[in-house]
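Re: iron/sulfur cluster structure - here you go.
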Amino acid sequence: MNAILQQPLTGAVAEPSPAAVLDRALRDAPPAKVIEVALQTVGREHLALVSSFGTESAALLKVMADVDPAIPVVFLDTGWLFEETLAYRDTLIATLGLRDVRSIKPSEETLSQEDPDRELWFSNPDACCRIRKVEPLARALKPFSAWINGRKRFQGGARAEIPVLEDDGAKLKFNPFANVSREEIEAIYQLAKLPPHPLVASGYLSVGCMPCSSRTALDEDARAGRWRGRAKTECGIHTTKTS
Ligand code: SF4
């Protein structure tokens, strides 16, 4: 159980967990308020934001930077990212004044043992995501007791019901954009004049790794281009316990 919001043992009647109580209190809170509460709850040294520097990432990074630009930002550089995403990361660091972006790479030893020919994305994408995303993220988050991410309910699928605050038993996970609409995100981009991800102009509504991202048609969901043609819809970083 997370040590920060530990639930006391109070007898047979099941009480809502402290995380559930805080989630309820934050249900209608604006994203900046959620980030402020995350900071107050665990302190900056125990809090990180995880960003893919994808097509909607600048909005959450902007809200975070307005609250505290020194919150550590963890970026998973999987070895399969588009050059445009790496350039976008650098653009947003400069534009938003982000002070502590940590680009995390997979273990070279694991790559040479499990994916020496760089074909695991095709033969076993779950294993590829494990060694290139899930395990590196778990290592990167070790010093932290809580993390912030940018999932939205409007993205559907496994994300349609996410609360504002989750406790996976290892870490707290704050979802400041859980309630936010696509229109509100677009408004943040417009108001702050945030630069778009360079690949949006060529038809990518959601950008991840090169082999597993494709353009989307006008009538498709934003994430339809991810792992196209496969049953896979999540890489595992949100479905795996973080320690
Ligand atoms: S998204 Fe694709 S390339 Fe990236 S880690 Fe997962 S399977 Fe591998």
